[in-house]
């Protein structure tokens, strides 16, 4: 009887991990943004501290004549806050209250500009450059194929308040795939100083999605077709890999990562299962798989989430996912929480 039980349990786990869109309850977007010109990829949500209903969703449009689009919460393009003529911007992230000097702090977005082999940093919401035209990355790399930036995440340390950019690339070595730069005050802007190289790579495909859980002190990144890798965010804590999870939960590409903070250290890690058109949900503290959800997207690369009340349309926060039709999908995160918290029925 014990052997039969184990076989049935294994079959149940396999069935849950192989669910497709059609097997899951669909959650449709509340808003679909206006279309971009080229190819949407990755979003970042800025919460307006003075009026959360006037928050902004930034999203990359990935091409030689690319842009960082700014959308209001109705999905309309805010042209005066959109950054155009970027050279293949790929991923984007943001953090709050970054010191420029002893008296001035600003919110910032940072994104990779692949064809210029650099990252860009702008203040939000006034969209002023803080980087003197860009910070070159992977400058010491002798292999030209390893010099093209792709993924990025920002980390604002809760202990010493230093700000870091963690940058990945289109191709890279088996060790030291990611570089971590400290963004330090310099003049009226910032400078980027390399502080460490870390991160394993399976060699299977590429590493694009990077996310930071600042409160718990971890960096997560998607080693596509392999697993989600976990490291310490603080350089002083070392470069050892802490774990790899989700290896049997994705059809092929492991893509965008969003950290949903329901308490200071609790919540969910939501990761795009790109080819299935679903999202896998993991426990934020244990990294255990919870379930898959169907947000009716196609070929999602990047995603982001905030759990702040953004007004009557998004009282429990906002989840944003890229869709493969030059758009971003906006969801009242409360609907996603309700689906996550439903009891999973085992086959």
TrEMBL record:
InterPro entries linked: 6-blade_b-propeller_TolB-like, B-propeller_Phytase
Family matches, as Gene3D superfamilies: TolB, C-terminal domain
Alphabetical keyword list: Signal
Domain BPP positions: 17-340
GO molecular function: inositol hexakisphosphate 3-phosphatase activity
SUPFAM superfamilies assigned: Thermostable phytase (3-phytase) (SSF50956)
Domain of life: Bacteria
Signal peptide feature range: 1-22
Protein name: 3-phytase
């Amino acid at each position: 009887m014990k052997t039969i039980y184990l076989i049935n349990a294994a079959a149940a786990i396999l069935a849950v991990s192989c669910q497709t869109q059609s097997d899951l309850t669909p959650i449709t977007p509340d808003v679909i943004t206006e279309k971009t010109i080229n190819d949407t990829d990755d979003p970042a949500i800025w919460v307006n501290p003075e009026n959360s209903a006037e928050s902004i969703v930034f999203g990359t449009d990935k091409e030689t004549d690319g842009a960082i689009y700014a959308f209001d919460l109705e999905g309309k393009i805010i042209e005066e806050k959109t950054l155009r003529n970027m050279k293949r911007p790929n991923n984007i992230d943001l953090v709050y209250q970054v010191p420029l000097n002893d008296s001035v702090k600003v919110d910032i977005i940072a994104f990779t500009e692949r064809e210029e082999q650099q990252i860009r940093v702008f203040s939000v919401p006034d969209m002023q450059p803080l980087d003197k035209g860009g910070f070159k990355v992977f400058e010491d790399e002798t292999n030209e194929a390893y010099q093209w930036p792709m993924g990025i995440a920002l980390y604002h340390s809760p202990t010493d308040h230093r700000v870091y950019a963690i940058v990945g690339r289109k191709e890279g070595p088996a060790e030291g795939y990611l570089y971590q730069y400290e963004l330090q005050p310099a003049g009226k802007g910032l400078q980027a100083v390399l502080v460490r190289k870390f991160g394993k790579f399976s060699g299977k495909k590429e590493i694009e999605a990077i996310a930071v859980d600042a409160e718990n002190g971890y960096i997560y990144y998607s080693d596509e077709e392999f697993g989600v890798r976990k490291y310490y965010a603080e350089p002083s804590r070392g470069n050892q890999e802490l774990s790899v999870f989700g290896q049997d939960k994705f059809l092929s590409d492991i893509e965008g990562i969003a950290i949903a903070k329901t308490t200071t250290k609790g919540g969910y890690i939501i990761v795009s299962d790109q080819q299935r058109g679903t999202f896998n949900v993991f426990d934020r503290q244990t990294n255990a798989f919870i379930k898959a959800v169907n947000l009716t997207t196609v070929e999602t690369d990047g995603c982001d989430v905030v759990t702040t009340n953004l007004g009557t349309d998004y009282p429990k926060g906002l989840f944003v996912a890229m869709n493969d039709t030059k758009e971003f999908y906006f969801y009242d995160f409360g609907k996603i929480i309700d689906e996550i918290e439903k009891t999973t029925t085992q086959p």
